[in-house]
Amino acid sequence: MITRKALSRRSVLRGMGATVALPFLDAMNPAFAASKKPPVRMAFVYVPNGMNVASWNLNYEGKLDKLSPIMKPLEPFKQDITVLSELTHNGGRALLDGPGDHGRCCGSYLTGVQPRKTLVDIKCGVSFDQIVANQIGNQTRFGSLELGMEDARQAGDCDSGYSCAYTNNLAWKSDTQPLPPILDPRAVFERLFGDGLALTPEARALQSKYRRSILDFVSNDTKRLASDLGPTDRRKLDEYLTSIREVERQIERAEKDNAHIDPHMDKPYGIPADFAEHFKLMTDMMTIAFQSDMTRIITFLVTREGSSRAYREIGIPDGHHPLTHHMGKQELIEKVIQINTYHVQQFAGWVEKLKSIKEGDGCLLDNCMIVYGAGLSDGNRHNHEDLPTLIAGRGGNYIKPGRRIVARKETPMCNLFLTMMDRMGVHVEWFGDSTGRLEGLDLA
Amino acid sequence: VERASRKKILTCDPNSGGACVDKIITTLAHHAYRRPVTKAEVASLIKFVNAAKADGQSVEQGIQIAIEAMLVSPNFLFRIEHDPDPTDPGKVHRISDTELASRLSYFLWNSMPDDDLLATAEAGKLRQPDVLDQHIERMLEDPRSAALAENFAGQWLEIRNLDSIKPDPGKFPDWGPELREAMRTETRMFFESMLRENRPLSDFLDARYTFLNERLAKHYGIEGVSGPDFRRVDLNSDQRGGILSQASVLTVSSYPTRTSVVIRGKYILNNILGTPPPPPPPDVPPLDESSVGTAATLRQQMEKHRADATCAACHTKMDALGFSLENYDGIGKWRTLDGKLPIDSTGTLPTGQSFSGPAELRAILKADMEDFSRCLTEKLMTYALGRGLERYDRRTIDEIDRKLAAAGYPFQSLVYEIVHSLPFQSRRGEYSTQRNTKPKELAQR
Q: For residue A374, which phi and psi values (nearest 5 degrees)?
């Protein structure tokens, strides 16, 4: 449906006179026909405030058997997930920088560095998803997508002197430029599928032509301005110019694909109040983006780190973060477990969806690596070792799932990232505090 | 029917020829870029009109594309201020008159300068003190200055957080969109009246009036206000008065299920006294107050917490301030009981001043205006400049506060003083770490 020769869904529907949604037909998905190997995609689904580790952890290694209470919703997909233990983010630790574990753990999660403790001159590191996007992002319409679900400011103090930029973003394009997640399903829709207007091919071509000349105009204007500006202003303009080039590339890419992707869903109205509904809309669109190869990299910040969201959907009026500091009270611990499980339940819904979509000889999920995890281990203790982590999917017939792998204590999370980068076709020697690649994912 | 916006753009018939198109584009770009535009800039925009025509589109469609281009141009999107010496922090220079016009209009209106202001700037007259004052006066009177209440007060008092805060309907059955909007409106209207009526800053801390509609009046237990419209209401009891008694402020400084003396204490230190507490020192776990169910145990726990010397340094002050507001519940409703236990809203500040209840705290705060005045000056200055304050701004702040004190702290004077101040009228190069690592010869090549 995205390549030139693809049979557009619209024409199929028109031919059949259908007005209802049909399941995707494999014939419309020739980009990855049997002869061509489907690409590997990766996503991160990040949940805040650690977990109740006692109810997350398994007490055995190897083949998955009885799942823990929090993982329970993933029971039907036991053969598709790999549980990882003992992965650590040293950059999340204080290391003489004092309190602020929530700020640090999210800032370091995909960057592998310890963020600078500041409210003003933020400094983190390029996140590894963006390193991958820089390398392979030109093969898809969008280098990467950053999504989230909780409205949050981008400035000010979000944790003991750590800027909100650290708790409210996962992806970092440069060490000073976080990529804020899109929260509104409607905005995601428009980003992916345009304004939803049915234009004739001629009108669409004209539209991209004008857009491109506007971008030329803007980039000339921008370059002209930069001459007598200070370094900070110049950096801002640079960032603007980079984003213009990115849009330019997307237009080019869309023209080359010569196909209008029909998302086969109605344009969402805005942000649904219900958590599960919001989650489903967002992951539905992520599914389409992966399926149609619009992007291969997604980061999804379910709620911001340190979130105090209340979960009335499941009868919990208290804020998530205050609950995690439960002082050993069973009643509060139960609520934390409920929230942790509720999150996994939504995630399981996405896994099910990815599994239901055929691709090549298998399903879409087989060609994905969807990491589900938290930046803190125990939310009450704020520790950074043995972070709750699991991967859904096989990363293109590489991972042998259905197991729990226990790494050596203090194995850097960045080792997993190196292995994932390999799978994405980007080979680097080290990243963050990596000490090597995480071995064993491919062993049966 | 022709839309007003269309009429505003198409001031002449674009099909009448190039002169009209030229005029339309020049006027629009002039506004969008907030400065005179060059012939070359106009020409680069008219290209879009010509291209559209060549594709068989109408002139109007071409103008539409040119407008799209203007609206994504950095000249529109960024407020550009040029530096003759961008990397020399020692060189201070006055910003241009048009740059000053933009600073002024974004400060007071949160929007672009109007024709009048721009024309004055382009005629080189904006820096004449009486002319500048006339514009400030005119712009404060203009309805557009409501933006200051919306944006500045929204940030300063954290009212914007009303959107994301979600009080527990089980604990607070009164909570709902209507009450939330009423809270927001009260604070906005109160701030606006402070500004428009040029009231003394001390009214922020304790005013004998506020703005209510029936919904909010009921929430406050004030009788005689009916209907959805807001009106000015005189306050007769000492339960309310000033921003610290407004439900918006009390709600954004609470947890979803209950009040927090720590958050409220910190709120007062941050936003009223301008002395934010430092983050807790290393190795001290964050204060756990989440399991506190009743005020009595809350107070006990806080006292215990303060027995630790490192915690006490900040919490003695922070908690005491917070306790003074305990008569307001998590959404700002007056209460004398928390559950079954009576509220104890007494406290003693490190200065030795003790108080009982919010009215006495207000009196203490009002008696010493220096801290509050400085705090507000710093916040408004930061908003006006769009940058954090530096050490070298300190002298300006001191000077403004001295003048304000002498005049009895009229609110508008603060605005005038900021606009006339050196930091508002000038800028300096930025210290660059790259500056020294790049030899001159290389840079010139």
A: -125, 155
